């Protein structure tokens, strides 16, 4: 795996696929520049080498050219983050872009217009990728958020840079973190899977049963397992058609020597409402009219114990309906446990959708080892899939 640290960019033009798909407000101001900040280290390394950078990204899902999705809106913010004035080209391919790149001097940065203004980008069009490839000497992929897509700029383009292609720091860190959890991490390895449904996590569960020592199951998924084992789950979220599957997972885990930890008690509520009446209830004795919306105190103690003896930790999905304050305590407590284990030397990766939102919301972002930047890409990695954007650069 080659990264930008394996190249000197002196007098080279780096064509970098970044993920600048940032949120904009009604005045087209960037409301969260995390993704731009995340790409900064790679860009700065290239400039400090004496090279220049041509940045390409998508923004939103435009249908053809739509001004509201123009990357022009983020030129100022990108300039501010990088500390230099970034130039802008109003099309990502063609004569204007090629001339701008020819004129580009070491230390300068160009941002190209939205890749998705051309339908050929998401179609993974060869000719479009070839046009893009004219805009740099070395191709750098630093966009994990789109690494699971075989788009022109994320995967197809790599063939036009047989030896001159590499990962940026951000993407390299993502690959490294996933690798730690799935293959090279110190044991015991623990995965915590929460969220709403077994059906959306099944492929991940099946893949990680071969990789982990402990699997903690929480959130709405719990109740399908508990009901399958003969428990009473009341009105809790439950996928009746997945009960067989749940039993099969438990059996496979036992065969593979994976210890599964399910909640033993829950915060039950008499409505799906922050103001509902609540009670601590045994997980398998939830009466009708009640539903489990968060992990209970005994459960949190059990989970804490498992986490504290783990050396490698993966967290995906909340333990309860964390969007409601009264059912966020389990997710917050879990975050504290993972932060403590990390402080004691464990490696912890938080990835995929809602758990990332939860760590940010509750301020655990800098207390875990790594928070993934790519939702779908992370989930597909955990499912064991080869991501096209990674394969295209990794295969020389
Ligand atoms: P996912 O996208 O599958 O990771 O699921 C995340 C969602 O699961 C969040 O919106 C949570 O509110 C929801 N969730 C977690 N625990 C429960 C529960 N016990 N009952 C209903 N929804 C839950």
Give a written overview of the molecule.
- With 396 residues, the protein is of the alpha/beta class.
- It has 2 domains: 4-171, Rossmann fold; 185-381, 3-Layer(aba) Sandwich (Rossmann fold), CATH 3.40.50.
- It has 14 helices and 17 strands.
- It has helices at residues 34-48, 75-82, 95-103, 120-123, 126-133, 169-184, 202-208, 222-228, 243-256, 297-308, 329-343, 354-361, 375-382, 388-394, and strands spanning 13-17, 52-56, 87-89, 109-112, 138-141, 165-167, 189-193, 214-217, 232-233, 259-261, 265-269, 278-282, 285-286, 291-295, 312-316, 347-350, 370-371.
- The N and C termini lie close together (9 Å).
- The mean pLDDT is 95.
- Bound molecules: adenosine monophosphate.
- Adenosine monophosphate is lined by residues 195-197, 200, 219-220, 237, 292-293, 317-318, 320-321, 323, 353-354.
- Order of strands, widest sheet: 3-4-2-1-5-6
Return the domain count: 2
Low-confidence residue ranges: none
Helicity level = 25-40%
Overall outline: elongated
Spatial extent as radius of gyration: 23 Å
Mean pLDDT over all positions: 95
**Which CATH-level-2 architecture of the largest domain?**
3-Layer(aba) Sandwich
Proportion in β-strands: 15-25%
Counted by DSSP, the helix tally is 14
Query: What is the CATH class name of the largest domain?
Result: Alpha Beta
What is the H level of CATH, i.e. the homologous superfamily of the largest domain? Phosphoglycerate kinase, N-terminal domain
CATH third-level topology of the largest domain: Rossmann fold
**How would you characterize the largest beta sheet?**
6 strands, parallel
């Amino acid at each position: 795996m080659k990264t930008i640290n394996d190249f000197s960019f002196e007098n080279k033009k780096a064509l970098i696929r970044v993920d600048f798909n940032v949120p904009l407000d009604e005045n087209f101001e960037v409301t969260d520049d995390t993704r731009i900040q995340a790409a900064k280290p790679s860009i700065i390394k290239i400039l400090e080498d004496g090279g220049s950078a041509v940045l390409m990204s998508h923004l939103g899902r435009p249908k053809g050219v739509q001004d509201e999705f123009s990357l022009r809106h983020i030129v100022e913010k990108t300039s501010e983050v990088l500390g230099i004035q970034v130039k802008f080209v109003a099309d990502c391919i063609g004569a204007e872009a090629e001339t701008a790149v020819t004129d580009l001097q070491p230390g300068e940065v160009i941002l190209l217009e939205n890749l998705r203004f051309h339908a050929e980008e998401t179609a993974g069009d060869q000719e479009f990728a070839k046009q893009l490839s004219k805009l740099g000497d070395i191709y750098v992929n630093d966009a994990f958020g789109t690494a699971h897509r075989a788009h022109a700029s994320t995967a197809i383009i790599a063939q036009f840079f047989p030896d001159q292609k590499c990962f940026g720091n951000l993407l390299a860190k993502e690959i490294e973190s996933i690798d730690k959890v799935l293959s090279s991490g110190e044991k015991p390895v623990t995965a915590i899977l929460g969220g709403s449904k077994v059906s959306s996590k099944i492929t991940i569960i099946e893949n990680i049963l071969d990789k982990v020592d402990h699997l903690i199951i929480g959130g709405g998924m719990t109740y399908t397992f508990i009901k399958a084992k003969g428990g009473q789950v009341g009105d809790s979220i439950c996928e009746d058609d997945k009960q067989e599957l749940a039993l099969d997972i438990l059996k496979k885990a036992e065969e593979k020597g994976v210890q599964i930890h399910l909640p033993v008690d829950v915060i039950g509520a008499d409505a799906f409402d922050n103001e509902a009446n609540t009670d601590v209830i045994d997980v398998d004795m939830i009466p009708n009219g009640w539903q489990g919306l968060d992990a209970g105190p005994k459960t949190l103690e059990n989970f804490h114990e498992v986490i504290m003896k783990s050396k490698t930790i993966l967290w995906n999905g909340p333990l309860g309906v964390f969007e409601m304050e009264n059912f966020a305590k389990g997710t917050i407590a879990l975050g504290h446990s993972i932060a403590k284990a990390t402080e004691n030397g464990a490696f912890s990766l938080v990835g995929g959708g809602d758990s990332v939102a939860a760590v940010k919301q509750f301020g655990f972002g800098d207390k875990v080892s790594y928070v993934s930047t790519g939702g779908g890409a992370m989930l597909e990695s955990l499912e064991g899939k080869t991501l096209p954007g990674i394969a295209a650069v990794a295969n020389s």
